[in-house]
Amino acid sequence: MGEEQISNEKTNTLVENYKTSKDKYARFAKAISQLLKQLLESSSIKFQQVTFREKEIEKLREKYKRKPDLINKRLEDIHDLAGCRVIFYLEEEIVNFVEIIKKEFEIVEIGKKLDPAGYNATHVIVKLDNRRNNLAEYSQFSNLLCEIQLTTVLFHAWSEINHDIIYKKEEGAEKFSKGDMEFIEEKLKEIMQNYLLKASYNLSFVVKQHERLKE
Questions:
Q1: pLDDT (tens digit, 9 = 90+) per residue, 122-161?
Q2: How far is CA 193 from its chain centroid?
Q3: Which residues pair with 111 in a beta bridge?
Q4: 152 and 121 in contact (C-beta within 8 Å)?
Q5: Per DSSP, what are the bridge partners of residue 86?
Q6: Strand spans (E) along 12-105
Q7: How is the beta sheet containing 47-54 ordered, strand by strand?
Q8: What angle do CA 42, 46, 49 make, to 5 degrees?
Q9: pLDDT tens track for 82-101
Q10: Beta strands of the chain (E only): which ranges?
């Protein structure tokens, strides 16, 4: 049996296992999102929205194709089967909320994800801590991982536009030449570097100045 066939069989087995657990990951993502909303509403941090999702079956299959080493991991060790996204107005609000998350969850990993062409977010991988694992409503989620994505309205909008243009295969896109798409990708990078990052910084600066004037 060849390596590719073995890999495909392992992938199929893992995907089938996930199918039986998908509803649990959906409930877990919803539970985490509700906790995040409660934490935000009890703080003074402004936010726009909190969303959640469990990974779709085909998305998981694609992930195994892109990252074949994952087939050697347990499902419980894949960090984004459950996911939440919190959208803020300013970068400072993300920094402040990360400190709250650190106190309320068991932190597995924290990292900044920056794509020059259009993605800017802080990713926090969490587990429920022992305090919540001991509660009946959360005990079923013991040891599950959730990826919490924290970004701003500005970068969220940019990410959605970038995804639609670069990654979605929309009707008519097959007519574009390689050169056309390379030009668009370069323009996206240019706008991100020359305008979007600066706009984010300047928005924060203006808000800070306004707060000082109110003191």
A1: 999 999 999 999 999 999 999 999 999 999 998 888 777 7
A2: 21
A3: 123
A4: no
A5: 50, 150
A6: 47-54, 82-88
A7: 47-54, 82-88, 146-152, 119-127, 106-115
A8: 95
A9: 999 999 999 999 999 999 99
A10: 47-54, 82-88, 106-115, 119-127, 146-152
